[in-house]
Amino acid sequence: MNYRVKGGKTLSGEVTTNISKNAAVVLLAASLLNKGKTTLKRMPHIEEVNRVIEVLKSIGVSVEWVGGDVVIVPPKEFDLKNLDKIAASKTRSIALFIAPLAHHLSSFELPLPGGCKLGGRTMMPHVHALGKLGINLTKGTDNAFHVDASKKEAGDIVMYEASDTGTENALMAAALIPGTTTIKFASANYMVQDLCVFLQQCGVKIEGIGTTTLTVHGVSEVNQAIEANPSEDPIESMFFISLAATTHSKITVKRCPIDFLELELATLESMGFHYTRSKAYLADNGHTKLVDLDLQNGELHAPPEKIAPRPYPGINIDNLPFFVPVATQAKGKTLIHDWVYENRAQYYMEMTKLGAKMELLDPHRVEIEGPTPLHGIHIEAPDALRPATVLLIGMLAAEGESMLDNVYPINRGYERLHERLKALGAEIEAIE
């Protein structure tokens, strides 16, 4: 699919934040901990979810869409010989299968994670954390890793880094190991909290949710009917916030997970951006706080400090790219420091093809000077989700017509995005 965009328009209207991609995929993996039926409510129809479901079906799991819900029933015995390696190679979420499968198989192999091409992404947080619980990862056959889960035991973990997926694997491993496991320097990010809420529904007691120290009281088995609600996606909310700021539009974004957006909004306020928010209310999972945001036009200027991500409650690493198009329309020079990924800052430079004035200072730092008029271009989407959406925002702000080819990276994380943009007044067309 390609997008044809006629940009330079001021947008208006309301949009509702969809369910989180990262919460959805970890709960699909975590459903394997339950021998009974798991129903995940209001799941997003996105390509990342489709790939994970393809992997699940290929190893014998019954997965069925019932309206907007996904119903999962695991097999009595798992067999990985028919695992869909093509689907697995397209998603980093395959790493989340390590811990759940370790409770069903004493040893197995899984393909190396794929997904966005953002440079080397270490498996060391998984290796280190799971090793403390007796689940050992070593190099397997070609383009795979071997898992030995024959000697599982509860233990104390100090995370090698505050990895989201590494923390999730540690949680899922500890959940079905009787005894107490402590995870220190854990990620407290939104998808980790969603997983904790799900595990508690399964009868696993967890202390410290939302902090960097988690204490897990493991159980021997989960075998019950579970209905779970993954929460809304702060990264999708941030897409629309960035779009409003870049196009100088007034947009209302509903159901925003505010705990995971407050520093981003404070940073935008320091750049002259204005907004109001509703009173907080709870998401369907009974845990995540949501608000509705009314985004308003403002005269943008560069922030007083560089913009850089940090583990929660800092600016989310996946939200950092959305400051790039905003900075192109802000007076002065903005320094963005993407220290986590090896290659992503280089993707930001694609905005220069739209007319942005930017300088790549090193592989991790970009200086952006604005405000700069943007113009239409014809370009293929980067093979990375967030950089692709950043280009789309630039095209919506640019005068003239643009074409963004092969938008599969966007469809990995966003459902019917072009239709939702059209409802806000954007001129965008999906071309098969």
Structure commentary:
The chain is globular, with a radius of gyration of 21 Å. The protein has 432 residues and is an alpha+beta fold. It has helices spanning 21-30, 47-58, 85-89, 98-102, 124-131, 164-175, 190-201, 234-247, 262-269, 323-328, 344-348, 385-397, 408-411, 417-423; strands at 2-7, 12-16, 38-40, 62-66, 69-73, 107-111, 136-139, 144-148, 156-158, 179-184, 205-207, 213-218, 226-228, 250-257, 274-277, 281-282, 289-296, 332-337, 357-362, 365-370, 378-380, 400-405, 427-431. Helix 1 (21-30) runs parallel beside helix 7. It has two domains: 2-18 and 232-431, Alpha-beta prism (UDP-n-acetylglucosamine1-carboxyvinyl-transferase, Chain), CATH 3.65.10.10; 21-228, UDP-n-acetylglucosamine1-carboxyvinyl-transferase, Chain (Alpha-beta prism). A hairpin with a 2-residue loop joins strand 4 and strand 5 (69-73). It is built from 14 helices and 23 strands. The chain starts with a strand and ends with a strand. The strands form six sheets. Strands 2, 14, 15, 16 and 17 form a five-stranded mixed sheet that branches. Strands 21-22-1-23 form a four-stranded mixed sheet.
